[in-house]
Design brief:
This protein has 600 residues and is of the alpha/beta class. Helices cover 18% and strands 31% of the residues. Helix 4 runs parallel beside helix 5. The structure holds (2S,3S,4S,5R)-3,4,5-trihydroxy-6-oxo-oxane-2-carboxylic acid. This is Beta-glucuronidase.
């Protein structure tokens, strides 16, 4: 069990949360001399750096943009004297990829993994009624023992360079919001809810974890702020007559208010929005509230000009507007859990999320997309580093499920993207991951993973672990593209018939299919990279999807063009976006809009 609370910060009569976003101080540390020189107390000659944001795209030199190694952040915060009898925490939405957090010079926590919260208890280190210094020592190197997987090269001039085994740019930094939190010493650490539907009524089962013994209450309020249920005890069930269900595109959110009491005196309070809905796989259907839903939408990235992977409410708003306009109802958080605000907004908008752990790059032969096709195939799960990788994977799965389990928008967990899945070792590895994940989700949501083309039905050893199967397929792009589209269609059909012959009686969702398309390129007749080709490719894919009843969703790759590592496979980024990087539609957006609106 996690030894800290992942709960999103909130302010109320028992707690205070202060946002620390803004301009921080920053320094690269290529010689790794910071600790020895005492940078944990004060950064010498720092530059300024916005938080939250990736550092890379602010710079005008390649050395800085592509920086790989240690780097430091610093900020100063006044901590009020009134917080003296409280627990104080600093909470980073994420720090990519690993970090140590110092408060007034003392190390308060370390964290591995760049896409989930870093939470440091600093109560014993802060000076109340004074200005305090918070310093972060971070590192963005990639290896095969942590997620996502990659390597770190050293260039002839001594600089380190990230060599991801994936295509998205290795954006790094404090990329999500930072909060200073004060909460009672005895506090609510976690809660979970699960639902049962009974005709028009709903039963809400809840469980609250605190770090003390005092009595706990649980209340629910509807959107008119009317109390609809009240209960005491750490766990229990409440019945909501004529419950408003949270539905796809029609969200309804109740406010859950949890309190710890000492008699009449309030000790702690935490409140959060919840949505009553069920998720179930029933034969070939994905059911929300007992009704089949066909998933329409995207694989996305957290990616935008200038701020890189930095969280920004404006980008989030535009992305949701574009997704609603086009008729989408779902996205996969490829290839890592996103900032929590994405899930909060999806809860509000009635969007469905397949939440993905940062397990990407687990196939050496696709390293930097350059080795692909050269026959350099090594089994990934046979190396001595695998036990450490598994530890990191299990930790990320636990942190993700604990963090996101109460969001109604989250309908499934994706536990990997495109690993090697054909060896006995891969089967053992992922059996451990799936078993661990299944024990963690009180709502027992479906578990899945995204399989690439080598995971063919006759040799894949891991699809059996999934409640529904996600396929990433590029017939007509990486396989038999352009003039060979007709053969791509044949090859695609052959594969899909093999899956059909397995009679698995579970849903399949396409979590990737797409073509690189330059927003300004037109060609008649079409040619690969032109807008016309993207449309023809999509039409071919849709024609195949519509032939198989077990295909229950299509999440096109990608929502928008995004930045990648430089290389011969990408023209300043991955251009498979349906929208360009500025979030303006390519012509394929209109093709998708027409189809998705007609599928309603
Ligand atoms: C994939 C990967 C994704 C890439 C995509 C592509 O299979 O999962 O991260 O961006 O292909 O465009 O090649």
């Amino acid at each position: 069990m996690l030894n800290f609370s992942e709960l999103y910060p909130c302010s109320n009569q028992a707690r205070m949360a202060q946002l620390l976003d803004g301009m921080w101080k920053f320094r690269f540390d290529p010689e790794e001399k910071g600790l020895q020189e005492g940078w944990q107390h004060k950064l010498p000659d720092p530059i300024s750096m916005p938080v939250p944001a990736s550092f890379s795209d602010f710079f005008t030199t390649k050395e800085e943009r592509d920086y790989c190694g240690d780097f430091w952040y610093e900020t100063e915060v006044f901590v009020p004297r009134e917080w003296e009898k409280q627990e104080v925490e600093i909470r980073f939405g994420s720090i990519t990829h690993r970090a140590g957090v110092y408060c007034n010079g003392s190390l308060t926590t370390t964290h591995e993994g760049g896409f989930l919260p870093v939470i440091a208890r600093v109560t014993d280190h802060v000076k109340f009624g004074e200005v305090n210094t918070f310093i972060v020592k971070a590192n963005n190197e990639l290896n095969e023992e942590s997620l996502p997987c990659g390597a770190t090269a050293v260039l002839s001039d001594g600089r380190k360079l990230a060599r991801p085994y994936f295509d998205f740019f290795n954006y790094s930094g404090i990329q999500r919001s930072v909060w200073l939190v004060s909460k009672p010493i005895e506090s609510i650490e976690d809660y979970s809810v699960e639902y049962e539907l009974n005709g028009e009524d709903a039963v809400v089962h809840y469980e609250i974890r605190t770090n003390g013994n005092h009595e706990v209450s649980f209340e629910l309020f509807d959107e008119e702020k009317q109390q609809v249920a009240k209960c005491t005890g750490r766990q229990g069930s409440v019945i909501i007559p004529k419950a408003h269900l949270w539905n796809v595109g029609k969200a309804y959110l109740y406010q859950a208010v949890m309190r710890i009491w000492n008699g009449e005196t309030l000790i702690d309070e935490y409140s959060s929005k919840i949505g009553i809905r069920t998720v179930k796989i029933e034969g070939i259907e994905i059911q929300i509230n007992g009704k089949a839903v066909y998933l329409k939408g995207f694989g996305k990235h957290e990616d935008f000009e200038v701020i890189g992977r930095g969280f920004n409410w404006g980008v989030l708003k535009r992305d949701f507007e574009c997704m609603k306009w086009i008729g989408a109802n779902c996205f996969r958080t490829s290839h890592y859990p996103y900032a929590e605000e994405w899930y909060q907004f999806a809860d509000e908008e009635g969007f469905l999320i397949i939440d993905e752990v940062p397990a990407v790059g687990m196939m050496r032969s696709t390293r930097n997309f350059a080795d692909a096709g050269t026959g350099k195939f090594t089994r990934f799960f046979e190396t001595p580093t695998v036990p450490n990788l598994l530890k990191a994977h299990l930790q990320a799965v636990e942190e993700m499920i604990v963090r996101d389990k109460n969001h109604p928008s989250v309908i499934a967990w994706s536990l990997f993207n495109e690993p090697e899945t054909t060896s006995e070792q891969s089967k053992d590895y992922f059996t451990t991951v799936f078993n661990a994940a299944r024990a963690l989700d009180p709502q027992k949501r479906p578990m899945t993973g995204a399989f690439e083309k080598n995971s063919q039905p006759e040799i894949c050893q891991c699809y059996q672990l999934c409640d529904f199967i996600c396929l990433n397929r590029y017939y007509g792009w990486y396989i038999k593209g352009g003039p060979e589209l007709v053969d791509a269609r044949e090859a695609f059909l052959i594969e899909m018939n093999k899956w059909k012959d397995k009679n698995l009686n579970i849903p399949f969702v396409f979590t990737e299919f797409g073509t690189d398309t330059l927003a300004a390129e037109h060609k008649l007749p079409s040619i690969m990279w032109s807008q016309e080709y993207q449309n023809e490719y999509l039409d071919m894919n849709f024609e195949i999807f519509d032939q198989f009843d077990f295909i229950q969703g299509e999440l096109v790759w990608n929502f928008a063009d995004f930045q990648t590592t430089e290389g011969i496979m990408r023209v300043n980024g991955n251009k498979k976006g349906i929208f360009n990087r500025a979030r303006q539609p390519k012509s394929a957006a209109f093709v998708l809009k027409k189809r998705w609106e007609s599928l309603d």
